[in-house]
Amino acid sequence: MERDQRICKLDAFAVVLVASLGVNIWLVSKVFMDSTRMMTMSWSRRAAMEAEAVGAISCSGHGRAYLDGDDNDGKSEPVCECHLCFQGTDCSVLIPNCKANADGGDPLFLEPFWVKHATSSAIVVAGWHRMSYTYNDNSFISKELEKLIRKVHAHVGNAITENRYIVFGAGSTQLLAAAVHALSPTNSSAPPAAVLASVPYYGLYEAQAKLFKSTEFKFEGDARLWKNNSYANRQVIEFVTSPNNPDGLPNKAVVNGPNAKSIHDHAYYWPHFTPIPAPADENLMIFTISKLTGHAGTRFGWAVIKEKSVYERMTIFMQLNSMGVSRDTQLRALKLLKVVVGAKGERDIFNFGYNTMKSRWEKLKITFSTSNRFTLQKILPQYCTFLRTIRESSPAYAWLRCERKEDKDCSAVLNAANIIGREGSIFRAEDRYVRLSLVRNQDDFDLLIHRLNKLVTKEDGTKTM
Fold first, then answer.
1. Domain-by-domain residue ranges, the chain?
2. Per-residue pLDDT tens for 106-143?
3. Which segments within 153-299 are labelled E, that is strand?
4. SS3 of 352, please?
């Protein structure tokens, strides 16, 4: 019996030894094959090395170096491009008395997320990538990207895309123009459509309409002034921005009737900025990657459309205007959105975005909690189906009001305190209002809070915070 046990032990040892040798042979062969593959990856290896080298330039955390940045005519590595209030070769020097810039809408608050996810979001593109005008099906749209966009909306629950058409554009800007064209009268003898938006509204709507000087449409101002008007013989196109830019309110269309049509601008309808109570289901909805992932410079947006005739007119507009969206842009959007709905950490970007914006709003509210001179917009909490909880809004912008009678120009009040905002009149509101951007990089936000704290503490009877 002892002999049998020794034989069994020897057999078991032999099995383990063989298995161990097999695993080691597999590992060695894999390393060899991987190293061989790396040796043969000549063009991609060099591109990756260039990107890694630039990415390793720290710029003291107050700037960024880029592959397409200034390299002094090839004599050195790309130089640091410093954040607004920093200077020096490594961006380590803070500029004294620099103004806190809270203008613009660059969503750089999401940059740290992409630094953390550099590996999964990186792309290497060969010189021969997508050189054609079209894809193999003769369209200007990547079918894989279209499927992924539908998946993103289903994942977040912020829009219904089933049985809907999708059109791509260079950000939401190009799509807004295409949508107005598509909803305008096709009968040349009909009067131009009245293009409207509720004050305060995003100034681009008016600027585009006036620039194009089309016979099909004309910008007519505040939609609320048309609410009870008779427009039986004229078509109305209303921009409905929800959440609204600049005040973050969940807007709805105010003009109704058989001749009234709407363009729903949902650029900010993502969990970073607002509760998602239900999926949007309007006839024409516009989204942009800039406020979803932060990649404003990629210039990519999409429209979700119910009616085939509207889809076809928008598609023709895109073909004649730009022959569709850059294939390189579509590839980058595809890579980024794969990270957004990736198998691991499916909520990562939304948790990061929401927590960052929530933290910024908490600091902002504390700053103004003792102020009698300034007030912020008030938005009621709602249940968010994505986060599965009742939550406050955390909009991209603070819509600040100066309450003193003498402070008729709130932007000037802030400018005197070294703070740059965007005047209320740009949104066709009173200049007693000013918009402050909360989506810029961390340096910009920190300086904004610092300047605001100093301004508030100067109020009579306010304790130092």
1. 1-32, 41-98, 100-112+347-457, 143-340
2. 999 999 999 999 999 999 888 999 999 999 999 999 99
3. 165-169, 193-197, 217-222, 236-241, 260-265, 284-288
4. helix
Pick from 428, 370, 365: which is nearest to 400 by CA?
A: 365
Distance CA 455, CA 407 (A): 14
Topology of the domain comprising 143-340: Aspartate Aminotransferase; domain 2 (3.40.640)
The closest of 138, 115, 129, 143 to 57, measured between CA atoms, is 115
Check: CB of residue 448 under 8 Å from CB of residue 114.
no
Cα 201 versus chain centre, distance: 19
pLDDT in tens, 193-227: 999 999 999 999 999 999 998 999 999 999 999 88
Q: Are 262 and 289 in contact (CB under 8 A)?
A: no
User: With contact defined as beta carbons under 8 Å apart, do 441 and 111 qualify?
Assistant: yes
Q: Would 100-112+347-457 and 143-340 be classified into the same CATH topology?
A: no
CATH homologous superfamily for the domain 41-98: EGF-like, alliinase (2.10.25.30)
Cut 0.85: pTM above it: yes
Q: In angstroms, what CA-CA distances link 45 with 39, 48, 69, 125?
A: 8, 5, 21, 12
Please give the single-letter amino acid code of residue 12.
Answer: A
The residue assigned the tokens 């720290």 is 58
| CA-wise closest residue to 264 among 247, 240, 248 | 240
Rounded Cα distance between 127 and 43, Å, is 10
- In this structure, what token pair is assigned to residue 421? 């905002």
**How far is the CA of 248 from the CAs of 36, 138, 201, 395, 399, in angstroms?**
54, 40, 11, 5, 8
Short-list 166, 115, 201, CA closest to 427: 201
Q: What's the CA gap between 173 and 196, in Å, rounded?
A: 16
- CA of 271: how far to CAs of 93, 299, 431, 445, 451, in Å? 35, 21, 30, 20, 28
Q: Taking Cα atoms as reference points, which of 245, 105, 268, 241 lies closest to residue 176? A: 241
440, 106 contact by CB (below 8 A): yes
Beta bridge partners of 79: none
**Residue 399's Cα: distance from chain center in Å?**
19
Query: Is the distance from CB of 410 to CB of 371 less than 8 angstroms?
Result: no
∠ CA 380-269-388, nearest 5°, is 65
Q: Is CATH 3.90.1150.10 the right assignment for the domain spanning 100-112+347-457? A: yes
CB atoms under 10 Å from CB of 412, counted, come to 14
